Task: inverse folding
């Protein structure tokens, strides 16, 4: 009798909530997210919008307006949305030719080096840099690699340094054995490689990014592809502020730059394209 009474009382409330739901226009959420991260969705909105609706419902919002209000005041909801919508695809030895070129360059450098990976996602890129340099006989104690990413879950996974076979598919068996310890069917990065990399969650458009210090080598691979041209220039401007000298080198992913950004001068050497600050 009591349970019948209870269900009679709650049912209309549930019906009312779904009746009031309004997930018709996500435009303001996309605008907000792009302003925050630089990422544009364009044709991918049809795939992303259902995710957004589930996310809004999961955070107790009955409309995109309510979600926008929440995002503006609650940093944990902002962080969760960034973690949901950023694409963290990466793997060891991606665009390896750039890393071989880096080794060649580092061997000629007499001083200790600071290297930035912005973004480093789940760690495969900064660890690959450490592995290539160690393998080439470069003393890891004379370099510091800083890897940042806006996605806090990616940064936690990077700090753990545990990977599946898929992430290591480009590595020869010998290097897997030399630089990883097997744990079940996963690979853990050895401590001496781990110690060469510092991970930080950070948005390249925020003030904290400019406090990372200055760098001799700056990698920014496969992030600018998600930005429009104006945002690419803004991102490059941020990166340029972290160059230690006019000789600092910048490396981008092969599809990142359609045109050379205003702040940079392009160079081509041994088949590798890299950039320095424009003099
Ligand atoms: C496809 S991954 C590229 C990772 C690696 N550099 C590579 O080339 O394999 C792109 C990364 O950019 C990060 N990202 C996107 N916008 C960012 C921003 N505004 N600040 C910092 N990281 C950002 C994402 O979280 C994601 O992990």
Result:
């Amino acid at each position: 009798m009591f349970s019948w009474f209870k269900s009679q009382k709650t049912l209309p409330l549930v019906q009312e909530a779904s009746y009031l739901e309004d997930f018709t226009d996500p435009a303001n959420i996309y605008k907000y997210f792009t302003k925050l991260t630089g990422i544009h969705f364009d044709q991918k909105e049809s795939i992303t919008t259902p995710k957004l609706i589930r996310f809004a419902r999961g955070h107790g919002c009955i409309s995109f307006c309510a979600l926008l209000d929440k995002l503006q005041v609650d940093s944990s909801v902002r962080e969760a949305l960034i973690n949901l919508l950023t694409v963290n695809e990466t793997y060891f030895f991606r665009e390896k030719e750039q890393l071989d070129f880096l080794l060649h360059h580092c061997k000629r450098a007499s001083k200790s080096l600071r290297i930035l990976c912005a973004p480093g996602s789940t760690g495969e890129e900064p660890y690959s840099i450490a592995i290539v340099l160690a393998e080439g006989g470069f003393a890891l104690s004379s370099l510091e690699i800083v890897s940042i990413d806006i996605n806090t879950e990616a940064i936690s996974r990077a700090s753990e340094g545990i990977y599946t076979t898929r992430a290591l598919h480009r590595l020869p068996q010998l290097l897997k054995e030399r630089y990883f310890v097997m744990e079940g069917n996963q690979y853990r990065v050895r401590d001496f490689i781990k110690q060469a990399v510092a991970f930080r969650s950070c948005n390249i458009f925020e003030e904290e990014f400019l406090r990372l210090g200055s760098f001799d080598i700056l990698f920014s691979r496969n992030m600018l592809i998600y930005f429009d041209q104006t945002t690419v220039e803004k991102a490059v401007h941020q990166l340029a502020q972290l160059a230690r000298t006019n000789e600092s080198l910048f490396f981008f992913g092969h599809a990142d730059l359609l045109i050379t950004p205003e702040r940079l001068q392009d160079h081509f050497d041994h088949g590798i394209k890299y950039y320095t600050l424009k003099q």
About this structure: Residues 2-20 form the longest helix (19 residues).
